[in-house]
TrEMBL record:
Residues 4-111 form the Myosin tail domain. It comes from Romanomermis culicivorax. The keyword Coiled coil applies. The keyword Coiled coil applies. Pfam families: Myosin_tail_1 (PF01576). Residues 34-48, 59-78 have a biased composition (Basic and acidic residues). This is Myosin tail domain-containing protein. Residues 29-48, 59-79 are annotated as: Disordered. Keywords: Coiled coil.
Length: 111
């Protein structure tokens, strides 16, 4: 019986040793799980922040494109007005030059 008791004691000690090792492993795995959850939560918050930031940038980009289109239209309108005014200036210049020459001719004829 003593031999059998020694075997049982040794088996009990082995089982307790395995139990302690498994408890340490369980504790380590729980710590790793908590760390992984914490990291996942941080990444999720960061992903949400980046998504919101991207949406804001897309909205800002759209507004800037609209503003650029409006500015381009305004520029084209101003260029058309400048061309029209330059043509009008040229007409007046030609008119005054021809009228001025006529008057110079009239003055010379009158002399």
């Amino acid at each position: 019986m003593t031999g059998e008791a020694g075997d049982l004691t040794r088996q009990l000690e082995d089982a307790e040793s395995q139990l302690n090792a498994l408890q340490r492993l369980k504790s380590q795995l729980q710590s790793q799980l908590e760390e992984a959850r914490h990291t996942a939560d941080e990444e999720s918050r960061e992903r949400q922040n980046l998504a919101a930031q991207m949406k804001n940038y897309q909205h800002e980009n759209e507004n800037l494109r609209e503003q650029m289109d409006e500015e381009s239209e305004s520029k084209a309108d101003l260029q058309r007005q400048i061309s029209k005014l330059n043509a009008e200036i040229q007409q007046w210049k030609t008119r005054f030059e021809s009228e001025g020459l006529l008057r110079v001719d009239e003055i010379e004829e009158a002399k």
